[in-house]
Design a protein that fits this description.
By secondary structure, the protein is mainly alpha-helical. The protein is built from eight helices and no strands.
């Protein structure tokens, strides 16, 4: 993946600045969030919690979130990473412990961010208050992916776009399928109006 030289230079400066961020949040909170989000276990746990405490609305929010997350995982990790090869940020920019476990796949896009945004968008659509709480974790994940050396900022931005598109897609496809079913039933009723009453003899 190639970008204009000026844009690449600006992104490299931003990445190195984020890599050098040292605070309680960077040392304690971000690694904890990343560990919770690994293999999407954070979002499955949130969906279960919503279903338990939120009743019908919570179940609808959790289901919508998981649907958006699933589509985002497929589009980011199954499609985009195979189409757009990109190296991870240089290891020497980061502490050795932070880049030890990063994957070998393409840096573009951030699958963690795509999944987080897809889940959060689905939850927010059904339950805005719960979506706002998920947004805080999503933002932390996005920052952590750059701070830990796994991604460039543009990888994270692309992941966010994919997450939003995935939620829209996960909503549109079932709606289109239901409309198609209704149209098929109406067409069948027009074609077969049912048994006719026999003429009296």
């Amino acid at each position: 993946m190639r970008a204009p030289p000026r844009l690449r230079a600006a992104e490299r400066r931003l990445t190195r600045r984020m890599a050098g961020w040292d605070s309680f949040w960077a040392r304690r909170v971000l690694p904890a969030v990343e560990d919770a989000a690994r293999r999407t276990k954070l979002w499955w746990g949130v969906a279960l919690l919503l279903a338990v405490v939120g009743g019908r609305r919570g179940r609808a929010a959790g289901t919508a979130g998981l649907a958006g997350m699933a589509v985002a995982e497929v589009l980011s990790n199954g499609v985009a990473k195979r189409l757009v090869p990109r190296d991870r940020p240089p290891k020497e920019w980061f502490h050795a412990d932070e880049v030890r476990d990063r994957p070998d796949s393409s840096s573009f896009p951030s699958g963690h961010t795509a999944a987080a945004v897809g889940f959060t968008a689905g939850v927010a659509e059904k339950w805005p208050g719960a979506g706002a709480l998920c947004l805080a974790a999503t933002a932390a994940i996005a920052v952590e992916r750059v701070h830990s050396g796994a991604h460039y900022p543009s990888d994270v931005a692309a992941g966010a776009v994919i997450g939003l598109a995935s939620r829209a897609l996960s909503r549109a496809v079932p709606a289109a399928w239901r409309r198609g079913r209704r149209l098929s039933r109406r067409a069948a009723r027009r074609q077969w109006p049912g048994p006719t009453r026999p003429w009296p003899s």
